[in-house]
Write a structure and sequence with these properties.
Strand content: 15-25%
Strand order of the largest sheet: 5-4-3-2-1-6
Number of helices: 7
Shape: globular
Order of helices and strands: HEHEHEHEEHEHH
Distance between the termini: 35 Å
Largest sheet: 6 strands, mixed
């Protein structure tokens, strides 16, 4: 299975990683490519780029303020850094949040952006369906690719099979059209 991507996507992922390194500094543990782009099934013009990043937990409860999370989203938005894929699906976790298994992964930021899309900024894991995050972590841990930092299996804890199956069930129960 090939994991090579078209040149624009590769350049974009390099630029995105650089923005994350510049913005998050030494707090950044790693940047990970998940989804079809990591698994060798990426289709230009149809696929998303799924990127997860992990930061070290700060001494305080939240490593960044809400304003800093919003500034990060602005820095990686399509307006600031045009995504050549259909969209960027970006999730930021603290290392503590992914070091132990959770049925409701506690992201710090969930951000989707792309050409012609309104974008989505989520800062509250309780307000979003958790099955997407469970599936991303389970697959990404096994098949994801580190853009920088240690391999995903060293950062993301394994999830019990029953949780993954339950998440798949949650995925299938979502109506295609609201």
């Amino acid at each position: 299975m090939s994991t090579s991507l078209p040149a624009p996507e590769t350049a974009y992922l390099n630029a995105l990683s650089a923005v994350l390194q510049q913005t998050l500094g030494p707090m950044l543990v790693g940047v990970y490519l998940f989804g079809s782009a990591a698994y060798g099934a990426y289709e230009a013009g149809l696929s998303d780029l799924d990127v997860q990043a992990v930061i070290a937990q700060a001494v305080i409860a939240q490593p960044l303020t809400e304003a800093e999370y919003r500034a990060l989203a602005t820095a990686i938005s399509h307006a600031a850094l045009p995504c050549p894929a259909r969209k960027l699906e970006f999730v930021l976790y603290t290392r503590a949040a992914v070091a132990t298994p959770s049925r409701r992964p506690q992201f710090a930021l969930n951000f989707n952006t792309g050409a012609g899309l309104p974008g989505h900024l989520g800062l509250d894991p309780a307000a979003e369906a958790s099955h997407w995050f469970v599936l991303d972590i389970a697959l990404g841990r096994e098949l994801g690719r580190a853009l920088m930092g240690p391999p995903p299996a060293e950062v993301f804890a394994p999830l019990p099979r029953e949780w993954v199956l339950s998440a798949l069930h949650g995925f299938r129960s979502i109506p295609e059209h609201p």
